[in-house]
Amino acid sequence: MSQQGYVATPPYSQAQPGMGGYPTGFGAPPPQSHYGHYGAPAQPFAPQAAGMKFPKSRTYFRQVSSSFPTFRYPPLPADSAPAMSPYGQPPQRPYHSMPQATPPTQQITNQMSAMNIGGYGRFSDTLFPSPNPIQSPQSPTSSAAPQPFQMSPPTPMGHAPLSPQGPQLPPLSACPPMAASPPVGVPPMVMPNCQPDSLSSSLSVALAVGSYGGQVPGSQMAGPPAGAFPGAFPGGAAQMAGPPQKKLDPDSIPSTTQVIEDDQVKRGGQLYTTNLRGQVPPFVTTSFSVQDQGNASPRFMRCTTYSFPCTSDLAKQCQVPLATIIKPLASVPKNETPLYIVNHGEAGPIRCNRCKAYMCPFMLFIDGGRRYQCGFCNCVNEVPVQYFQHLDHMGRRLDMYERPELSLGSYEFTATLDYCKNNKPPNPPAYIFVIDVSYNNIKSGLVKLICDELKTLLDQLPKEEGAEGSAIKVGFVTYNKILHFYNVKSALAQPQMMVVSDVAEMFVPLLDGFLVNFQESRAVINNLLEQIPDMFSDTNESETVFAPVIQAGVEALKAAECSGKLFIFHSSLPMAEAPGKLKNRDDRKLVNTEKEKTLFQAQRGIYEQLTKECVNQGCCVDLFLFPNQYVDLATMADVPAHTGGSVYKYSNFQVQVDGQHFLSDLRQDVKKSIGFDAMMRVRTSTGFRATDFYGAIYMNNTTDVEMAAVDCEKAVTVEFKHDDTLSEDVGALIQCALLYTSISGQRRLRVHNLSLACSSQLSDLYKSCETDALINFFAKSAYHAMLAQPVKVVREILVKQTAHMLACYRKNCASPSAASQLILPDAMKVFPVYMNSLLKTPALVGSAELSTDDRAFHRLSVMAMGVEESQVLFYPRLIPVHSMDVASEAVPSAVRCSEERLSDTGAFLLENGQCIFLWLGQACPPDIIQNFFNVPSLAHLGTDMSSLPELDNGHSKKLHSIICAISQQRSSSTKMVIVKQKDRSEMLFRQHLVEDKGLYGGASYMDFLCYVHREIRQLLT
Ligand SMILES: [Zn+2]
């Protein structure tokens, strides 16, 4: 049990009061307890005696069930997916015999010495080390950086302890990419050797990255190769002794598109059954189906690694974050079984008395079925009489496969009144549409667009499966400097407007008739929506308020005693005299200074207060912004960012150009499945616990994740830390419980369970890593950190940690090889390209050329992302469409995201989950242009094209089918942008070519890899 070191708060993590104390995670009542069991008084819990790994009863656990959580199910054919009826009466599954689980592999204790890594050791206690800038050389991520990063003198040849002798090393130019060819001779003095890992296992990949090696002090450089980070990639190897060497082949460095394709080939189309502990799922980019056999689907939970290190020392040593990204309400594809809803009646869900974990496959029934031992805290509990069931000869309950909570990783319980506010069943939620009717929005036609759309959209409010209509009520507010509420009661012939001009003391002037059922009030509402654009058509009012608007929404929900969502459509900096008035504080001189972080910090005061009120009321705020200039997005988006809300931004909105994109965003947002008034709790088995949480969430204490709402796209990233030793036998168990109100007003508990492996071998951890999940974690933790630390420091920490993780692998897991080789764990071999992409994102790049609002927007949009979304954001898909096979159904293979892959005569799609660009080379053949656009040449295309005509020819149809396939994979709508090579708008597109040097700073992938390699070598010597 380590109380110091690793559990210390990292310098840029959120404060964790009580972190050092074990019992905080177990049932401690939150200061404000609104909900029954979440706030139930904590059971006294005696921490385990130091060194005592298992309580006595654990012996029984191990003997009887032989590592219960790892049991294997016989594989099920795809067509025999369980046909359980949704309410707890599944048919018998064909599981007649359960093969004994294999005994835990005997692991040899790894004799790992502490890494001797120079000055870095001082950082090793914390995830994100102290804000000391890298002394030298200049980091490639530093945006103060048009100067070359200077290489420190290279390690003299033969100095590297693991280095085989020179003559065995092939010259750079002879190095085949990642091939295990036999080494060939090389002049001994060639530094930049690169050598395939001649001993390479499936775990490592040896890379050719030598070219900076020739930095003998004082040597002349020939200048950077074209396109490289200025000076960052000094020296073609030509100046060096030995045979002439060519520029490093970009194909020789690990390719994300290849890695994605390999996984698709290997695991695509498969049925992924979740029966094994610590099983690494297919990539998010791979198409596969999931069958729940005791662990949550990767659609709900994905981990940075599926094998946790047994001790905190090992965790510290490797610095690989232990985290899971939870998307609790993720959409389940139609071909997979939806979650079962378990109803235990008035008794409610069965929970461990001590840690309050919910009944799940990790509970071990003993004593003939009369008692069960909690897999999380080991407490032995009585089985309630009504829940009793006999055990079979294997110690399993006879009804195991009839009860989702005993055999599945994910399921829902209907919650009892104990789980409801004030012990009353909740009312159905309400959606309030709040429209800024100031001059800009009227003039642009936005108000009319919104009103017209709502007339049809409100027919499509989400409803419970099987329900006739939606239970969600709707209400309408318009505003500029003052607010207008509308009475749309069905009995009225005409809607009535009520004006509140005292914005300092916001109240809702009507209760009856404000929130109504759309079906019942359709005529009045349509009448209102028809009138609103006309009512304000002559407005000259350009000033707006903002905080009072949110206040009004919360007050309305309070009065109606329900949760809900505000849809706010707003265009300008709220400068009218009112609470929450904002001023322009966009000072780009702060970029790259200590104070840069203030640009991203929200103005406190009223917005902080509103956040709390919204969370308490279950009021989610979605913000649709239409700015023509700076609007202090960091502050305006603060309430949405803590209430499970979404922010959309349409700069310089024009109905013609952006109207369709906005409407499809709005439609998706209104229709998407969502839960309200949510509270999430992540419980773990003994030895580790959740310490840090990132997402569109609010935390009032260290354990309860509060979300005014959570929809199917929102993910929470949770980091874990050790507080004791983990056992290889038991593994690491995680249970995420989400209490929420459904769209029909039912209180539900959704439970996701996941069991991970534990190992004392770091190689197991590296083998089980998931790069996509890692980068999600790093992005969120860094974006959180940049509120408290200079952005430059955050970038440096990211680079250092990248090097550290890879150096630790190299030192402890890879076969001995020359220090000049870069060896990456197989599961992380494209991690550097993602990390480099993260460093170049608008939020982190530190360029005064980028708009502050854009940077804040990017930062906030990533904070609630799931792994699918962050993966494609950090490595967009670039798809050639000039040479596609029109006859084939498939989406053409993506190519590396680099300018080098473009051609003047080509056409390419690039998608990153937010935009789809169609890039047209300037020499793109006229027949392609004709087929796509029905115009004779590129010159005939306008510059502001935002849509692609659907034409009656094979190429056009194929292109649309690709775009359609892409859109279907994305949870949010994607904006179409058509870009001609050399046009001004091409800059927008080029920003996303993440393997290239950044437009606003930041290294190319190749340069970054070289830099990281050099850092690794420094760490190892
Ligand atoms: Zn327990």
Counted beta strands = 31
Strand content: 15-25%
> Kindly, what is the distance between the CA atoms of the first and last residues, rounded to a whole number of angstroms?
31 Å
Number of helices: 23
Largest sheet: 8 strands, mixed
Domain Sec23/Sec24 trunk: 426-669
Region (Disordered): 1-32, 123-174, 226-266
Keywords: Cytoplasmic vesicle, Protein transport, Transport
Domain Gelsolin-like: 891-962
Overview features:
1021 residues; alpha/beta; 8-stranded mixed β-sheet; 31 strands; 24% helix; 16% strand; globular; disordered N terminus; binds zinc ion
Topology of this structure?
Elements (H helix, E strand, L loop, with lengths): L55 H10 L138 E4 L48 H12 L3 E3 L15 E3 L9 E3 L3 E3 L2 H7 L4 E4 L14 E2 L21 E3 L4 E3 L6 E3 L21 H4 L2 E5 L15 E7 L2 H5 L2 H12 L15 E7 L3 E5 L8 E5 L15 E2 H18 L11 H14 L3 E7 L35 H12 L1 E7 L7 H4 L1 H5 L4 E3 L5 H17 L2 E11 L3 E7 L3 E2 L5 E7 L4 E7 L9 E10 L5 E13 L2 H6 L3 H15 L5 H22 L9 E4 L5 H9 L2 H4 L6 H12 L3 H8 L2 E4 L26 E5 L3 E6 L5 H8 L20 H16 L5 E6 L5 H5 L14 H16 L1
Parallel strand pairs: 2-3, 5-26, 7-11, 12-13, 12-17, 17-18, 18-19, 30-31
Antiparallel strand pairs: 1-27, 4-6, 6-24, 8-9, 9-10, 11-26, 13-14, 13-16, 14-15, 20-23, 20-25, 21-24, 22-23, 25-26, 28-29, 29-30
Question: What does this protein structure show overall?
Answer:
The chain is of the alpha/beta class and 1021 residues long. It has 23 helices and 31 strands. The strands form seven sheets. Strands 5, 7, 11, 20, 22, 23, 25 and 26 form an eight-stranded mixed sheet that branches. Helix 9 links the parallel strand 17 and strand 18. It is globular. The N terminus is likely disordered. The structure holds zinc ion (ZN).
